[in-house]
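Input record, target 12 of the design panel.
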């Protein structure tokens, strides 16, 4: 059956709308629906010389039809204010969150199979007086899910994170046995069900330099991380660590692994983005719905220029299609 993927362009002053417009030129087996302001999209299309694309307004009650190149389906939501490429406007924060809410609700109500999100600027949403740390946490809260895990992935490398968008100062305190047990449960379950890995081979990073250097450079590695790894090893899973994070991403380790778990955002993501920026996707594991996203931010410098690369958005949509098909198979 044709799947329905909702795509939110994210920050209207960023490259999200440009990338979404570029989808008209691609083939997808599923139905692609942008949840966005059609007037904003038309203005951006004009600026990019893409004004021949037909924008078709849809509602979610019709049966999904495969994407037709040259057209784009739009579920209309009005921007709060005019938007100029490259210029953030806090008056559009409510609009951005409304597009997310509509997409999340549609998935929760089985009117759509997955959401793929474009990039948002977290600061401008906060500047509008709305606390917001990222899509990951927003989707978690809106789906009433106790624990989710952020994972960015390319074909060759999967990097999951034990903590997400928190200040570095708070990371060590956040690494508790309870957190790690929950993260490992979500991660291993998703690697098995969404990625078809029966016994996922996982490398787990330590927190401190050299994984604590036998306790001389910090105690969390031996006292908190190692016992959680041991629990999984006793269940027969090839989980290795805590490994020093500086060498975990060396080829000889990665060749023996399906996925990696970093303790914090900038321990794992620089490696992933260095090796695969533009062809990676971001997935929120542990949600009752499917949410994939791009590996990059709003790139305000490129908005409206036609120079933004849509590789990551294509990967994110294709992955959402695959996950939706997998989940449908599991459900039958
Ligand atoms: N999925 C998301 O919502 C998401 C992801 C990452 C960052 N962000 C947010 O984006 C904002 C800007 O973040 P940043 O400057 O650190 O990262 P960024 O990814 O926006 O930009 C980093 C560099 O990469 C370039 N770049 C980014 N995407 C590109 C693309 N598709 N094609 C070509 N070049 C591209 C930019 O021009 C810039 O030089 C921040 O507010 C951040 O929180 C959001
Ligand atoms: N941590 C992500 C990255 O660096 O690409 C990014 O900030 C987006 O996170 P959300 O998907 O939670 O918005």
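The sequence produced for target 12 reads:
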């Amino acid at each position: 059956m044709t799947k329905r993927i909702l795509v939110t362009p994210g920050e209207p002053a960023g490259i999200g709308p440009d990338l979404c417009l570029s989808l008209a030129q691609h083939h997808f087996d599923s139905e692609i629906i942008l949840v966005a302001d059609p007037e904003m999209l038309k203005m951006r299309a004009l600026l990019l010389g893409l004004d021949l694309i037909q924008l078709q307004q849809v509602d979610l009650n019709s049966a999904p039809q495969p994407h037709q190149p040259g057209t784009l389906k739009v579920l209309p939501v009005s921007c709060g204010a005019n938007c100029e490429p490259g210029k953030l406007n806090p008056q559009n924060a409510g609009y951005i969150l409304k597009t997310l809410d509509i997409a999340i609700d549609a998935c929760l109500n089985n009117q759509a199979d997955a959401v793929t999100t474009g990039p948002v600027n977290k600061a401008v949403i906060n500047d509008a007086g709305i606390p917001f740390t990222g899509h990951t946490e927003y989707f978690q809260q809106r789906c009433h899910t106790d624990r989710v895990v952020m994972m960015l992935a390319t074909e060759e490398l999967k990097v999951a994170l034990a903590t997400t968008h928190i200040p570095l100062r708070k990371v060590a305190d956040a690494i508790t046995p309870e957190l790690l047990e929950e993260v490992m449960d979500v991660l291993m379950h998703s690697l098995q069900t969404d990625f078809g890995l029966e016994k996922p081979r996982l490398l787990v990073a330590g927190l401190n330099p050299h994984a604590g250097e036998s306790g001389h450079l910090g105690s969390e590695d031996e006292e908190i991380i190692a016992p959680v790894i041991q629990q999984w090893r006793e269940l027969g899973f090839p989980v290795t660590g805590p490994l020093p994070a500086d060498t975990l991403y060396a080829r000889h380790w990665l060749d023996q692994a399906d996925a990696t778990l970093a303790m914090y955002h900038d321990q794992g993501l620089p490696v992933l983005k260095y090796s695969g920026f533009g062809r990676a996707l971001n997935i929120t594991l542990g949600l009752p719905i499917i949410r994939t996203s791009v590996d990059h931010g709003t790139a305000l410098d490129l908005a409206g220029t036609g120079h933004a690369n849509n590789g990551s958005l294509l990967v994110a949509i294709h992955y959402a299609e695959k996950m939706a098909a997998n989940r449908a198979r599991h459900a039958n």
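Residues 10, 15, 119-123, 135, 282, 293-294, 296-299, 301-302, 308-309 surround nicotinamide-adenine-dinucleotide (ligand 1) (CB under 6 Å).
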